[in-house]
Amino acid sequence: MSLAKENVKSISDRDPKAERTLKRNIDLKILSKSLRFLQSKYSATPFVTNDGKKTQKFNIEHLRPEDLKFSNPKSRLVFDNVMRIKNETKKQVSRELSYVLLGTSESQLRDPFFITKNAVDLLAYDQDAERASYLCRISQKEHAVVGMNTIMEWHFEKKDQKAGIKCFHERSKFGIPSDPYTFLKLFDGVAKTTPWGASSRGLCEKMLEIFKSNRAIFSSQGDQFTTSVFNACLSVLVKNFEDRQALAWEFFDELSEKEELELSRIYPDARTFTILLQGIKKYTECKKEEVTEDKKLTTDERIVRLLDLEAGHVKTATVIFDKVLNAATPPKPATDEMLNRKNIRKWNKSKINIDFPLVSTFIASMCGRDTHYAYAERALGILRQVSPDVDKILKYVAPPRESTLQSASDFSFPAEPVFKKQVDLKLEKAVRNAKNMELSFAESVKEVLPSRVVSGLDEIDNFNPEVRKARGSGSGRFETHREPLIDLKRESPTTTEGKPSDKKQKQKNMNEFDCSINKFMLNQVFDSLLNLGRFDAFVKAFYYSLIKWGGARMYSEDLQKCNILGNFLSTVRMRPHSIGSVSSIMDGATLEAFMFKVGERGRSRGFTNTNVAVQVFRILACKEYHHDSIPLTRDHIDKMCSLLIKDLHYYNDYNKKRVFNYGTFIEYDQMVEFLHNLVNFVEVHEQYMETFKVAKPHGSFYGFLYKAIKTLELSKWKDSAESTLYLNKLIVKCGILYHQPKHAFPEVDQKNLSSTIEVYARQLLRILGSSPEFKTELKLLKEPLKEFLGTREEHNRENHSKLLQKIYDRIAVDSDPNVKKEETIQKLRRDLSSSSSSRNTTTVTTTTTNIASAAAPQHSIA
């Protein structure tokens, strides 16, 4: 064998191709030798195969040398039979045969790198751990440590917790030692494969026993690594909800020194407290769900129970974060330099660097879906203290009377008054009717009121104080200037050398590092504004963020055409257009969340604010304004379609609560609002297809249009000719561009939509010809509509598209004939303004306006 290697070496110096040929010949000789051994030793023993249905024999005499390569399926079959025979006869397998079936060699089994690499290859080929585990067992034990770690980690990645834990215990049985990373991967794997609330006491006790009995092993890696292992174990314990997560809290308290074990103290870091905060958040959510599903509770009792859980969550999270702030605060400078040096050295061992996950997880205790406004006010106060970017957003969207207040202590962002009054009355009634309930986190029912809870917490005016930070552990000196204790900005890269494309990417990275906000905190701002009943501020904040971090390329002259919330967009300071979006702050998920919130909080008194979402889509779909911004996807389009369909359900449900009626019941004004949104969305879809080079609409889009139009068709229509004409024009304009000739129906949805559009086109032509009042429009539309409704088999696709575009352009829907008097508009405004207290948000002036054309009338006015 050594002679062959020498031949390989000598030939490789002259001819690499000859080297590869010789190596293949050597491998073939080894495979042939192993095959002869296999056939001679096991010729009398039947080999079997199982395809999952039945077991049958196979003849090893028919095998070829190549069949024994470890990557060949037959090699695995041979391995299984050889191991079966070994277990039955208790005789060891030939080492040479094992090496061939595992794809390794004697020398490789002494190299940790090759052992791990071979184990990874076997796991990938087999999709189980049989051969990989056997490989580690026959290797030199001290070199198989990493390979066994890899196998254990593979089990956890496959969500097989039982196999992962079994793999950990088996290594000691086979004499394979553990290293510090073994325990980190074990605890981390168990935590990731355990659902919240499903961590049993038995599992937790097992993990605790492993942690305590092996602490000396991973402590040898230093304090930071020991803390990482502690955090991984804590992640398992917080998923046990027994006795309010008592096991996790007891484990956390054991951070103090264990003198009897001569083990140093474990110092918690930001991750430790993030785990605790996340744990109590999940615990509270679980208990809230139990209360919500408890049918024995009255409505008032359920409200009080939920308030009690929220109060406990906020109080506990505040206590935890107070510990964080104390650990993060540097010692006060003294006149004695030696004392300063001692204090700084001691502080550096236990200090906590507060990061984004820790801050956002803490704030999550005070903002979420339908959180009380008192908690939302506090969340916004903390957010603007720790993030200058949040402060800028709030000052921008604040009402005029508040936006002039500049100092941190003076500036506030309270709940909308009418909304606040409505919530207070509801909670006071619940507390009054459930005053004798036993609570978990308060002594009396009145103490669970959020206003009481917040008043008992520390003021947030100095939540992020300015301190003099230490220069280093050995200098004994402090910085001369003061800095905020919590600074979420990271050091930004300064070099911009390299190719132009590299410079652009580095410029984007620099802007990302220069921000004190991420996507989670931004969504917390949005949620808090909605929980204050300020839908208008929420919309402003989103548009502001879209332009500042979402890469929306917009110009002042275009913004003047947009009447979104009183043209507030025209005052947004533009970012340089070359920078593009900052994905860590705004991405596709942020857009999806925005659409969901508009649908959930933007509906009131029978009308919607879906036009706000349509306008956002127009900005992102238009080639002129989309510059390295959030890319629209088909999933976004589908969610927008779903939002519009849910609007139809909302109209129907709202009307049926007022007037009992069979079938679909959508009023004229609602139809007009919906159809204007639909017309604008169809335009947006056309722009989306052009900008993102989508060849043709997806079948689901045809199905959406057909479903929307058929739903309206079943609804209540006004009898006047003008009203019927206007609705017909809107419907035809919605679907005309997606009509297909009769001979070109590729899908059922397209056929249904095209047939429906033809029906409304005939009706439109008939109405236009029924009255001299429509003479002007009849002149414009008569010729193209007749051509459209005639025989079109001879029309090619290009001519047909031109005809559809002509009809679309000539249908004018800018004004509703039923909206004529200013008094009607003013009355509508008053009615909708007074409706803000009937939902969890106020309505907002959001007149949908096409950036490239005039606006259509809307009914969503504040």
Could you outline the blueprint of secondary structure elements for this entry?
Blueprint: H1 2-12, H2 16-41, E1 47-50, E2 55-58, H3 73-89, H4 95-102, H5 112-126, H6 130-138, H7 145-157, H8 161-173, H9 180-192, H10 201-213, H11 215-219, H12 223-237, H13 246-253, H14 270-293, H15 299-328, H16 337-350, H17 356-363, H18 373-386, H19 388-397, H20 400-403, H21 417-433, H22 450-455, E3 466-467, E4 483-484, H23 500-513, H24 519-531, H25 535-548, H26 556-559, H27 588-601, H28 610-621, H29 634-658, H30 668-691, H31 699-713, H32 721-735, H33 748-768, H34 775-789, H35 797-810, H36 822-833
Antiparallel strand pairs: 1-2, 3-4
How would you portray this structure in words?
- This protein has 862 residues and is mainly alpha-helical.
- It starts with a helix and ends in a 29-residue tail after the last helix.
- It is built from 36 helices and 4 strands.
- Mean pLDDT is 82; it is low at 1-12, 402-406, 491-501, 506-510 and 820-862.
- It is globular.
- Among the domains are: 178-267; 306-470 and 475-482, no CATH class.
- 59% of the residues lie in helices and 1% in strands.
- The protein has a two-stranded antiparallel ribbon. Strands 3-4 form a two-stranded antiparallel sheet.
- The chain has helices spanning 2-12, 16-41, 73-89, 95-102, 112-126, 130-138, 145-157, 161-173, 180-192, 201-213, 215-219, 223-237, 246-253, 270-293, 299-328, 337-350, 356-363, 373-386, 388-397, 400-403, 417-433, 450-455, 500-513, 519-531, 535-548, 556-559, 588-601, 610-621, 634-658, 668-691, 699-713, 721-735, 748-768, 775-789, 797-810, 822-833; strands at residues 47-50, 55-58, 466-467, 483-484.
